[in-house]
Amino acid sequence: MIIAFSTSVILMGTGCKQEEVSEEIVKEAEETSEEVEQEIEEEPEQSAITTEPIELSFWTLTGPFWFEFKEYYESINPNVTINITAQEFGFLWNMGPTAFASGKEDLDFSYYWGGLYVDELGKEGLLVDLAPYYEEYGWSDYMYDGTWEYKTPGSGMFVLNYAWVASPFMYYNTDIFEEVGVEPPETFEDIFDISEKIKAAGYETWALGASDAMAIGHLYMQLLARYADKDTYDKYCMWARLDPSEESADIFKIQESKDAFNMIIKLVEEGVLAKGVDVMDDGSARQVFTSGKAAMYSSGNWGTNNIRGENPELNFDSFPFPVISNDTQYINNTAISGAFCDCLVIPISTKENNPEKLAVIVDIMNTLITDPEVSKMISNIPNSKALPLEELEKLMDPITVQQIREVEAMGYVEAIDVWTGPLRTEPYRAVTQAVVGGKMTAEEAIEEMYRIALLDLEERVEQ
Amino acid sequence: MLKVGEFIDYYNLVGFMSKRINRNNFVNYITGYSFVIPPLIFVVLFIMVPVFKSFYLSFTSWRGLGEPSFTGLRNYINLFTKDPAFYIALKNSLLFQFGATAGTILVGLILALLIDLKIRFWRFYRFVFFLPVVLSTIAIGFMWQKVFDPYGLLNTILEALTLDRFAIIWLGQSQWLAMGIIVFVTIWQYSGFPMLFFLAGLQNIDPEIYEAARIDGASTIKRIIHVSIPLLKNVFSVIIVLQLIFSFKVFGIVWVMTQGGPANLTEVLGTHLYKVAFTGQSFGYGSVIAVLIFIVSMIYAYLYTRISGYKNTLK
Amino acid sequence: MQLNTHRKRPFGSIFGRSLIQIFMISWTLMLLLPIFWLLYSSFKTSSAIRANTFAFPKVIAWENYDFSSLSDVGLTIGIYYRNSIIISVVSLFILIFISLIASYSIAKLKFPGKNVIMIIFIALLGIPVHAILIPLYYQMLSYGLLDKYLGVILPYIALFSPFTILLLQAYFREFPNELIDAAKIDGCGNLRTFFSIVLPISKGAVSSVLIINFINIWNEFLFALVVMTNNNAKTLPVGLMGFKGTYAIEWGPLFATLVITIIPTIIIYFIFHRNIIQGITTGAIKG
């Protein structure tokens, strides 16, 4: 798959003759529209299954994509109505599990994220195992390599991922960089260097929000992945899912974790992170960036659209998330592409109470992955191979295109999930916040993580 | 415990009363009960039953799935020995309570006294001062959060006045400052409420008393201190307890402005409960906090009865 | 409402009066300026707000008030409004009705056991919803009332009746018995006495209790947050929380939303403020 993908990329890159290229494009377009026609022809058959009107209730985050999708899907399937609830970010993350666990009616399927956490919910029997559908519909064929198949070893497949590997990137304000006269940093050591110059010019260096789990969790896990090897990293993240015990909880006290915390502390102490980091959430931090007060803003490649939306006039670019230093000990391929994928999950209550709804939801998932029209809607993150990348690139933001190329050039090997384990629940998250706020040393932080893990263990053992 | 003599009286009374249960009384009984039963049903079903369930859950461990499993006192022990966030939340809840109560009452009193002087435009002032009370707390919280945001209105103004060093992280730096700001916002919004209570009380004071004091040569300020305030004692008691009860319930304003953060800095009991129970999926453990909140509210309810002289209301 | 003037002449010296006026004006500005800032900021474009937080708008950004752009990303303010109104009105209606007749009968009618009942209400006076949040959530779940109006209406009635009954019964206790006896002699039963004689005179206390409860219910956040989670069911405070988050929400529409959240209550207050103030003061005296 990678070969095929890279080949088409190379073909594009080396520049075929124009006619050949346009022929290819036309052929692709024809194929695509044939597929689309097929889809459209198929759909009425599907909706014939649902002879009665079906109303689905769907939770997601605020944003226009799902509303566009809803319009499209309902036009094909007039019997179906998707009622979308856009939840606040923290709310969906927090209440999601309660909603799934309590078997609440009126939640038929949901957007979610954080693969391994979803895995745990699945293992507890809260989510529908989608493995059979992957087989039946061949969804894996449509997914890009690196779109991680979230799986705790030995468990099922509880999500449909529909976003390409979302890599971490650093967005930067090209005007500020030019004015100050600095180049995009390649290592964290470089960041400290350019930060001095940026601050001297009166700007904040790096806008980051620590008050919600998003950005600071990202940063911590990225750092951890760069300090530790993949094995250790996985043990850390999957602790709760792989035979948790008091002995294995020692993983929380590893030196690499301390290093990660220390790096964060250093970033704060040297004033690299913008003022107010511990009270801002990711949205506020982004606004500091888009209002031109900060030179950099870390996010994933989903950030491009958000930034454009907030300030279309901003001149910005991105570079891949830096490594720690050029010391070979710290260059770590696995950390170069960290994945957290947008995904869909289905609470088990839907399957148990309403098999007709389940059928429709599966169809929605299928459309999401296999329908090229849908691919055109998520033009910032290629979601599936339904639409060839060359087509998609014409619709995508040029920065996103560049990001895809950069990640390919680095050669992502294995993805990691930055949304896993410890940071999902409140007690753990308070630790990173405390560290950022300068209220905890790294030593205290790892001890605190360990302590919380033991408490967590108690709860789990009871069940 | 009844003494023998009282017992005989009681017995006589019962006998006396049973002869008095005639048709009129009977109708009263029926009406009385039937009128009182609806709220009773609501209250029993939606408050008392859940309270018992909270007690029950606090002795279990439950993650929302399946059946709760009994764990005895473990949750309580953990709460008191292994949960630093709880003590922070407790301290903040009390800080907020007393700060908000004292603040709103003090400001309310001053405003009421000044309005009572009936200077020009007093009606307008009375109108304006109560206005924020009716506004949505969440909207107010959003607005003030934008003011105290690190890049918000206040800091922008300070920087424009080149007072950069004062442009600090208002809601994140220190517990006292952050809670103080939340208390300030609450005072801003709710001072009008005690103000009205005090105005009512002031209205009740016989003007003759003021006249007597004036004739005795007391200045206005002296009259306020020695006449008005002492005579407002009843109002004080009632409004203090009411404010304590209302401020204990705080959740919305904290959640909107800081969500109890950062790192539990502004955590209050309500937010801690929400995070532990609904975010951490520990309903048993969260119920311990619920039980504690319940016990404290009972204490306040008892206080209220003492203060407002409920014994008089039970004839 | 006549205020007590314990002076026959205008108060004090000009100096004293001016000082007080200055203080009052300052406090007025203190209260009104933030709201005013919110109001005029809501007419600025988001970039204008970003550029200069406290300047006046140079161009009126009417589009901030076009809430369809918010609906397109899932923030359907209109729906939240509607829900808040329905929930508030229905809860209020039922709550006041049952509290009125209950407190009247407690105050005026004699029947055994009413002291016990009063004690029950008093004991439950200060209970915040936090204490029963978890079991109530699962209770509503088991009744199938999550995301339904009744899922919040019923608990609200339960939560706010003790306070209401307490206030009202104190008021009714003071109510002159002669009027009631006169009605009884004329042949009115208990119910009719209440509705035709007692109630019209008690407007003050009733409106105060109405207003306090309306504000409490309209602003109630925690319980609604947990129970009303689907978009169609959310109340206004809960829906407003959607503005926090990772998707690029513009400050302009945010401010506009906050404005339309508070404007109606301001208008209602403007119209009814005399009643409200009268009611609370009357209630305060008797309570």
List keywords for this structure.
heterotrimer, B: 315 residues, mainly alpha, MetI-like fold, 2 domains, two-stranded antiparallel sheet, 16 helices, 74% helix, 1% strand, C: 287 residues, 13 helices, disordered N terminus
Task: Describe the model.
- The complex is a heterotrimer of chains A (about 475), B (about 325) and C (about 290).
- A five-stranded mixed beta sheet of chain A has the order 2-1-3-10-4. In chain A, strands 6-7-5-8 form a four-stranded mixed beta sheet. In chain A, strands 9-11 form a two-stranded parallel sheet.
- Chain A is an alpha/beta fold.
- Chain A is globular.
- Chain A starts with a helix and ends with a helix.
- The longest helix of chain A has about 30 residues, at about 20-50.
- Chain A is built from 21 helices and eleven strands.
- In chain A, helix 3 (about 65-75) links the parallel strand 1 and strand 2.
- Chain B has about 325 residues and is an all-alpha fold.
- Chain B folds into two domains: about 5-60, no CATH class; about 85-315, Orthogonal Bundle (MetI-like fold), CATH 1.10.3720.10.
- Helices cover about 75% and strands about 0% of the residues of chain B.
- In chain B, helix 2 (about 25-60) crosses helix 15, helix 4 packs across helix 9 (about 190-205) and helix 4 packs antiparallel against helix 12.
- The longest helix of chain B is centred in the first third of the chain and has 36 residues, at about 25-60.
- Helix content of chain C is about 70%, strand content about 0%.
- Chain C is built from 13 helices and no strands.
- At the B-C interface, helix 2, helix 4, helix 5, helix 6 and helix 7 of B face helix 1, helix 4, helix 5, helix 6 and helix 7 of C.
Report a brief summary of the structure.
Chain B has 16 helices and two strands. Chain B has 315 residues and is an all-alpha fold. Chain B has two domains: 4-58, no CATH class; 83-313, Orthogonal Bundle (MetI-like fold), CATH 1.10.3720.
Topology:
The complex is a heterotrimer of chains A (463), B (315) and C (287).
Chain A: H1 2-14, H2 18-49, E1 54-61, H3 65-76, E2 80-87, H4 89-101, E3 109-112, H5 115-123, H6 131-137, H7 139-142, E4 160-161, E5 168-173, H8 174-180, H9 188-200, E6 204-207, H10 213-227, H11 230-237, H12 255-269, H13 282-290, E7 294-300, H14 303-310, E8 316-320, E9 338-339, E10 343-345, H15 348-353, H16 355-370, H17 372-377, H18 389-395, H19 398-410, E11 416-417, H20 426-436, H21 442-462
Parallel strand pairs in A: 1-2, 1-3, 6-7, 9-11
Antiparallel strand pairs in A: 3-10, 4-10, 5-7, 5-8
Helix pairs in contact in A: 2-16, 10-12, 12-21, 20-21
Chain B: H1 4-20, H2 23-58, E1 60-61, E2 69-70, H3 74-81, H4 84-116, H5 122-130, H6 137-148, H7 153-160, H8 175-190, H9 192-203, H10 207-215, H11 220-231, H12 233-248, H13 252-257, H14 269-279, H15 283-307, H16 310-313
Antiparallel strand pairs in B: 1-2
Helix pairs in contact in B: 2-15, 4-5, 4-8, 4-9, 4-12, 4-14, 9-12, 12-15, 14-15
Chain C: H1 14-41, H2 46-51, H3 68-71, H4 77-108, H5 114-123, H6 133-143, H7 149-174, H8 177-185, H9 190-201, H10 203-219, H11 222-227, H12 236-240, H13 251-286
